[in-house]
Amino acid sequence: MARVWHSSMGPRPGVYYKNYERRRGRPRANRPGRVQGKSVFRPFVYGSYAKPLPTDPSKRPANTAPDHTHQWTVYVRGVNDADITYWLKKVQFKLHETYTQAVRTIEAPNPFEVTETGWGEFEIGIKLFFTPESGEKPQSIYHHLKLHPFGEDREAAKERRDPVVSQLYEEIVFNEPAEVFYDILTSDAPLTGRGKGGSKGAKQRILGSRTAELPAQAIGDNPYSAHTEMKEIDRLKEARKEVEALVNEERARLDERDKELRELRAREGAIKVKSPSMLLLINRGKGMLDGYILMTTMPAQPEAEHLSSLPPLLNLLLHRTYDIYTNAYKLVL
To answer: pLDDT digits over 30-51, tens only?
Structure first.
């Protein structure tokens, strides 16, 4: 069913996501009918597409609630609309509980997508059911529905009423798949993809071998390709250089401040207290002065009238002595 992992690696053999591992347990040693030591991965994308509804009631979809502001579609698709039905049998979408029939199950050959209208964002549970030949259990992923623009250009996109696309790329890995399923995954049967718009009736034939490799260049609206992947890697490298430069700059600034602090302590003649009794004396003196200062600054009480009426010079002396003890206390610490 899956790759044989070392005990320290965690996930047990079986189907799992390259970026979204969930299963845990002990690896099983003997599994007859499976291709030992082999792993096959298949890429796919999942996400949502949302657009604002027209304000004119006559242009809104039929039976749309008056308070609904957007029409959205949640989907699971192959990269470049490649066929994924040879390994994926059906997809179950769990919507918010306020929707009628909150759990929607879409089976092949229908497009794995659900279209609705609404006004709020929420998390959608997506469960993938594989073909019977796989012998694999369903796997779950989650997608947060996005209705409003995000990113740096979000305000301008909101003014233009641009559609909002929130999509993620994922690779599902079949570790040591069943022999029959392995043959299906690696066969050279032609692929069937959806045509423009993804409708059931608009199908097109794509000839070639089943492959999990990214295309060399982006095709249509699909942003995933080897070229864009290399551009993303270069962008991450540049960002890493910028972060390292900022870290070095901040480290130099901290070193300079530390140097200034050491020089300041040297000029001020920091007190180095080695005797515990001296430290105790400073603490006691500071505590007594804390009490005196508090009593002189509080409204006069019958038992503290003699302190609140202290001469200004003596009051200043108390505060100055308090500052000395405070500074000595800080230097000791």
So the answer is: 455 889 888 898 999 999 999 9
